[in-house]
Design brief:
By secondary structure, the chain is of the alpha+beta class. The chain is built from five helices and ten strands. A hairpin with a 4-residue loop joins β6 and β7. The radius of gyration is 17 Å and the shape is globular.
Length: 192
């Protein structure tokens, strides 16, 4: 499911962007529910404070621990050889003191990231500490050649990303085929 961003788009989280995100969230949530170590899931996507903090669910494990998880989707993941790390969000119309916030990759308090790659029908799973460590290694090793990506997210926002080469991330992620979950959601009509 492709999405369009750009300065001519009113809001980035309406229409196709929102539909792609909701589909990815459904895939990730079902994947977590099927995990043998997970006793129960608290879906926190409708809790504004957690949504704004970039937390999609609480996983209650059989051993008594609880972990926060965030779900993301990237159509380029597994295709381009890079992993997107969102560094900064710029709001071009906000008061200057609110013009920038850290990107989700840097600010989420979640322990786990489930990154859905729709083109590969896989979930790339890692800890945020692992992803942040890969970001640090890449930017340390390639300071002058770090690959920045500027996205005109919508008519009032832009996003600054770092594209981390897969070689810095391959030990951080486990990759899980979720074709069966994609098929099941598609079959029962939840896919847009």
């Amino acid at each position: 499911m492709g999405v369009t961003t750009g300065a001519d788009k009113q809001r980035s989280y309406n229409g196709d962007y929102m539909a792609a995100g909701k589909y990815a969230e459904a895939i990730c949530l079902e994947f977590v529910k099927r995990s043998p170590s997970v006793l129960a899931i608290e879906d926190t996507r409708n809790l504004r404070v957690l949504r704004e903090a970039d937390v999609d669910c609480v996983m209650h494990l059989y051993d008594g621990r609880c972990h926060l998880a965030e779900f993301k989707s990237d159509a380029h993941l597994g295709v381009t050889g890079n992993v997107l790390f969102e560094v900064l969000r710029v709001n071009h119309t906000a008061p200057p003191e609110k013009s920038c916030v850290l990107g989700w990759s840097a600010r989420s308090p979640a322990k786990f990231l489930l990154y859905f790659a729709p083109e590969k029908r896989c979930i790339y799973l890692c800890t945020f500490d692992g992803l942040r460590g890969a970001f640090q290694r890449y930017t340390r090793d390639q300071r002058k050649r770090t690959r920045l990506d500027w996205v005109n997210t919508d008519s009032i926002k832009s996003t600054v990303n770092v594209l981390i080469p897969w070689g810095y991330c391959e030990e951080v992620f486990t990759v899980h085929d979720v074709s069966d979950i994609c098929e099941a959601l598609s079959t029962d009509g939840r896919r847009n």
